Amino acid sequence: MEIQNNQTNIDLLKKAFRLLVTAKSLAELYEDEKATTGKYVHATSRGHEAIQIATGLQLTPQDYLSAYYRDDAMLLAIGITPYELMLQLLAKRDDIFSGGRTYYSHPSLNHPNYPKIPHQSSATGMQAIPTTGVAMGIQYAQKMGIIKDEKPIAVCSLGDACCTEGEVSEALQMAVLKSLPILYLVQDNEWDISASADEIRAQDMAHFAKGFKGLEVFSIDGTNFLESYETIEKAISIIRKENRPVLVHAKVPLLNHHTSGVRKEWYRDDLVEAQARDPYDRLKEELYQNDFSADEVENIESEIRELVYSDYQKAKVAEDPRSEDLYDHVFAPTPITEEKGNREPIGKHKTVMVDSALFAIREIMDKHPESLLYGQDVGIRLGGVFREAATLASQFGQHRVFNTPIQEAFIIGSTVGMSVVGLKPIVEVQFADYIWPGLNQLFTEVARSNYLSNGKWPISMILRVPIGAYGSGGPYHSSSVESVLTSIKGIKIAYPSTGADLKGLMKAAYYDPNPVVMLEHKGLYWSKMKGTEDAATIEPDEDYVLPFGKARIVQDAPISSNKNTITIVTYGMGVYWAKEAAKNFDNQVEIIDLRTLVPLDENAIFESVKKHGRCIVLTEEQVSNSFAQAIGGLISENCFEYLDAPVRILGAKDMPAIPLNSNLEQEMLPNAKKLHELINSLLSY
């Protein structure tokens, strides 16, 4: 919408004023009714309204918006009603964003008549990566013809204080590197809760952003509605026509509390100066200059205050979530519920595990143009440091298989944006030891999206993680991290021990609408370590899928009347330690390979333990506070009356890291010899 003539100008000003008065009235009502509205923490847009409204009015249903927790005026501008906002404020069941699960102005919306709003967290910088992932997904979908005629953009709204986060820099780096269609809107009120700008930054975002070559930057007075509108209009035009990123830095005052729980009068010394820059006063003056009368302005304000109060009364008595609602949308339903396809086609030779993964992804990418693979060193030159992506870039093109910078947070968090555009990203973190910078995105954005959006935005992605100790890899290439990952609710986790299982689970993961982490043991990739030869298997056919949550009985042990028997519950490399140790016992050891850690096949575990009455849980991780100990606790709780001995856990010693020296590594890690001794001890208990 262009500002072409005076009447258009007046109509636009009037529309903006109505929206600003609505946002202002909401903030004032929340303060007046704080005994009720303060039950749940909230923030409002007071002082930020002009730039937010100028942005919201220009977005279309084809666009994607990341609105942060102070953006209620922007939400009003795209068409959300005061009543709908208040349903979220009061955490009601009919809250259109989350069904009462998350805070006010933490939107998620997937509706054909509005800009699409993927779920994001409290948006203190983390939103920059998923939203940049949206822009990367738009670019890819256009290139592949998945998006044809539209010219969607992504809009990422940020407070200036959160731009000091490293994840914002990762996002900007990729936006300019890939020339992505994204608008970064930075609202700068010069406060980070009680920390003022001079305490927390060396320069504002307008100056910082100029260090990113190719990022056009506009710095404006965000209290001036017409200047804001025209700047946003220009920025959006550049992005749509030229497919490149733009950053708009808008200076605004913060006129309300940081949040309802952190009151401005506790620490602010600039309230008088801030009030003098109120965009409400400025926009009202613009109306007077365009021949609006005081009566017309007063009538608008009176009408809107009455509407807001009426909506509030209705929202107060709206239904709260029901207790049973708590359990909805943990995972989206998966279509893969049973094993299908041919696991062992006749006439094939055994395939090493790393090639089983490679072939699975090759078949997926050949069939599904919406799939793509990216991460560190997976591109055309190397194809992964373990050659797990060899030939894929040359076969499918560097737009589908490409390297990223060393940015684990971006690699993981960008999958949120890719997924909401309708793509299926397969990404890699090079070693489990380096997953830590990405855990913020995995926990806060990826894992929670489906649940906190009330089922609107499940994140469909696969994260491949080479894991485990392999030949003196030392402290930075040997770690096991499954206990941390299994504590993150909302992701599925596979840990296969054979090539056939890896291929079947990779296929199931692709068709699963939820986020999946594939833990792939480096020591099993090529079956080079003695005793791991069975990790190489006949490659299943293209249609083979293996559902999550189904353990494998590696070795059965019959019940005996004259000798004790035992169950070993394990996964990954533990399967091969268990097989080696079991050779010394006469049909006394049953081995359960979990194959997936989440969901966990509890029935298979309990049935085996009840059958044998003795159990060892075997892991490569350090034992204390581990996933393996949690399994031991489950067994004790559910099989106590069947046990003839205490459940024992065998894993690595509780050292801070795995040393480089091979003797020290051997001392720290479990192995078949240590397991043999423990089996002996429990069988004779």
UniProtKB/TrEMBL annotation:
Q: Which cofactor does it need?
A: thiamine diphosphate
Q: Which InterPro entries match?
A: DH_E1, THDP-binding, Transketo_C/PFOR_II, Transketolase-like_Pyr-bd, Transketolase_C
Q: Which SUPFAM superfamilies match?
A: Thiamin diphosphate-binding fold (THDP-binding) (SSF52518), TK C-terminal domain-like (SSF52922)
Give the EC number(s) under which this enzyme is classified.
1.2.4.4
Biological process (GO) annotations held by this record are: branched-chain amino acid catabolic process; response to nutrient
Q: Name one Pfam family in it.
A: Transket_pyr
Which keywords does the record carry? Oxidoreductase, Thiamine pyrophosphate
Q: Can you give the residue ranges of the Transketolase-like pyrimidine-binding domain?
A: 351-527
GO MF, one term, reads: branched-chain 2-oxo acid dehydrogenase activity
- Name the job this protein performs: E1 component of the 2-oxoglutarate dehydrogenase (OGDH) complex which catalyzes the decarboxylation of 2-oxoglutarate, the first step in the conversion of 2-oxoglutarate to succinyl-CoA and CO(2).
Q: What is this protein called?
A: 3-methyl-2-oxobutanoate dehydrogenase (2-methylpropanoyl-transferring)
